[in-house]
Design a protein that fits this description.
Blueprint: H1 2-27, H2 29-35, E1 41-44, E2 47-49, E3 57-58, E4 60-64, E5 67-72, H3 74-78, E6 86-89, E7 94-97, E8 99-101, H4 106-109, H5 125-139, E9 145-148, H6 165-171, E10 177-181, E11 185-188, H7 190-195, E12 213-215, E13 221-225, H8 228-236, H9 247-261, E14 263-269, H10 273-284, E15 291-296, H11 303-314, E16 325-332, H12 351-366, E17 371-375, H13 378-394, E18 403-406, H14 412-421, E19 424-427, H15 431-442, H16 452-458, E20 462-464, H17 476-485, H18 501-508, H19 510-515, E21 533-536, E22 553-558, E23 561-565
Parallel strand pairs: 1-6, 2-7, 8-14, 9-10, 14-15, 15-16, 16-17, 17-18, 18-19, 19-20
Antiparallel strand pairs: 1-4, 2-3, 4-5, 7-21, 10-11, 11-13, 12-13, 21-22, 22-23
The chain binds zinc ion.
């Protein structure tokens, strides 16, 4: 136990020393550049939004190998060119750092990605229906047409209605259809109901609690299944995944879709082993196009499991990887009975469960492990902070970057407690997708969920993510649009705690680099950092705010390699 405690803490201290050394190199950069070999690539004639500490805007960037060697004016950077230096004329386009989602269930998504018909960012119901029709036709009769979250019917600006069983029967008469809205409910057609054995005048099949399967007065299932995460899982656990030999193709498509959306790095809760092995293989071949930082570790569900977990936690080693793949946090659950369901309105964490939570978290602190934990409802956040304050007196957590994730109901006093503890906030505005449902549940209180401005004004280090791909949509420019306008997908205003474009971008880049322990390498366009960047089709800083969601990268670069190019 002692050994590992020291190992993890030693690593974290080492990072601080390394950063100091790197700072010295950065300050000495102009001198070193004179003797350095020429860059491989120069991007010039652009608006380079570096997102450095002073939010400097430059014209050009020079890249050698996988990292940035210089940032400056067109003339300064042109002088560095050698005979083999490639050039890209940005033609005035805006460049920003590659976007980082600090919490997306990315690897899990690979197991269904190419089987799903995703509605992320689709704001027309007509278009969604066309996609379903086309998919049913392409798959052929009898095959499941489905998606697992990432959308909500209120996003269809042209016609924000739920789907009915009869309508889905018409759209895909020969296919079972299951469309999951966030984790809120699932719309099924008649074929799907039959396959799932959800039939009139018969008991609910095993796995469903009373009330989850919505029935009309005559006992006939309407096609809607509710029940929050547990209810939707009772259905989606029965949907087909990609086969073992389709997994690589599905993962390739997933990564490409993420690169196309502007994402280059991820905090990933629960790194599925099968998919991680593929990513390891690609890394070895020099063709891994995203960076993956795992939030891993098994939560306990009973006091007996806690007994067993304590030993495992003591032997957990993080930070054995590199800037492409690493494990960085224990998370995202500690003691699963205290994992807030998504659409619950209020919690009341019982003392006996908190006692088990504390045994786990105390062992995590004693082992010197960073913790990234799902904490959503106000009273749950308070209860966790009570426990953490007590743990901190025995095993200080200040250097461990303990992070509360989601925090939709966090308030100013809680943020102050976190700051005193040296904690951070990974913010995943579920309201981007679920804003309308949240307003039904919380009334006007939902306008402050999450309280982005309060977080920003507090000075706590916090970053933006989605918690996709089921709970929320996955597109980072939709998240930035939400942060700047307070509008959910589809355009309805659901949040009043809006941010400046600059602060929103910092939260999706440099702050997230810190939240995934990569602040030395990622999050801004600066000499010495890895060349992860986006060339955009329009200027994030000046485009009308409502168009932020429509911004598309024309080039996405990871480690100096162009991984996506629209032209
Ligand atoms: Zn969570």
């Amino acid at each position: 136990m002692e050994f590992n405690c020291n190992e993890n803490e030693k690593y974290l201290r080492h990072r601080v020393i390394k950063w100091r050394r790197l700072s010295l190199i950065l300050f000495a950069a102009p001198l070193l550049l004179a003797q350095a070999p020429a860059p491989d690539l120069i991007l010039s004639n652009g608006k380079v939004v570096t997102v450095d500490e002073r939010f400097t805007v430059a014209q050009a960037v020079a890249i050698r190998g996988d990292h940035i060697v210089a940032v400056g004016s067109n003339q300064e950077i042109a002088r560095l060119a050698g005979s083999n230096t490639m050039r890209i004329d940005l033609k005035g386009r805006t460049v920003i750092p590659g976007l980082i989602d600090n919490h997306m269930h990315l690897l899990r998504a690979a197991t269904t990605w190419t089987r799903e018909t995703r509605f992320d960012g689709i704001e027309s119901r007509k278009q969604a229906i066309e996609m379903l029709r086309a998919r049913a036709k392409a798959l052929g009769p009898g095959e499941w047409v489905y998606n697992i979250g990432g959308w909500i019917h209120q996003q269809f600006a042209d016609d924000p209605r739920p789907f009915t069983r009869e309508e889905l029967d018409k759209i895909a008469p020969d296919n079972p259809v299951a469309l999951q809205e966030s984790y809120y409910e699932i719309f099924l057609n008649s074929r799907a109901l039959v396959l799932l054995k959800i039939v009139p005048n018969a008991p609910d099949p095993p796995g469903f609690q009373p009330g989850w399967i919505v029935r009309d007065a005559s006992g006939r299932p309407t096609g809607i299944v509710q029940g929050d995460i547990a209810g939707t899982r009772a259905v989606t656990s029965k949907l087909p995944r990609v086969t073992a030999d389709q997994l690589e193709a599905s993962s390739v498509t997933l990564v490409r879709d993420m690169n196309r959306a502007g994402l280059t790095s991820f905090g990933v809760p629960g790194c599925d082993q099968n998919v991680l092995e593929l990513f390891q293989k690609w890394k070895a071949e020099g063709k891994l196009n995203v960076r993956v930082f795992c939030i891993d570790g098994a939560a306990a569900a009973t006091p007996e499991q806690v007994n067993r977990s304590l030993e495992q936690i003591a032997h957990t080693k993080l930070f054995q990887g590199d800037t492409f793949i690493d494990s960085i946090f224990f998370g995202e659950s500690v003691y699963s009975p205290l994992h807030d369901p998504m659409f619950q309105l209020k919690s009341n964490p019982p003392p006996d469960q908190l006692e088990q939570w504390r045994r786990m978290a105390s062992a995590i602190a004693a082992a010197g492990l960073p913790l990234h934990v799902h904490a959503e409802l106000h009273d749950t956040i308070n209860a966790f902070l009570d426990q953490i304050e007590a743990i901190n007196r025995e095993h200080p957590i200040k250097q461990l970057r303990w992070t509360l994730a989601h925090v939709n109901q966090i308030d100013a006093p809680q943020i102050e407690r976190m700051k005193k503890l040296g904690m951070y906030a990974a913010v995943h505005p579920w309201a981007v997708t679920n804003g309308a449902i949240m307003h039904e549940g919380f009334g006007d209180g939902a306008y402050d969920m999450p309280p982005l401005k309060t977080l920003q004004d507090s000075g706590i280090i916090w970053g933006l993510g989605t918690d996709g791909t089921a709970a929320n949509q996955t597109l980072p420019f939709v998240t930035l649009y939400f942060a700047v306008t307070g509008k959910m997908v589809g355009g309805v205003k659901v949040n009043r705690q809006t941010l400046s474009r600059e602060d929103a971008l910092i939260a999706h880049t440099r702050r997230n680099a810190f939240l995934v322990f990569q602040e030395d390498y990622l999050g801004s366009i600066q000499p010495g950092k890895l060349a992860d960047l986006l060339v955009l089709d329009r200027d994030y800083l000046t485009v009308p705010a409502d168009q932020i969601r429509d911004i598309k990268p024309v080039i996405t670069m990871v480690g100096g390699r162009i991984v996506y190019g629209a032209e």
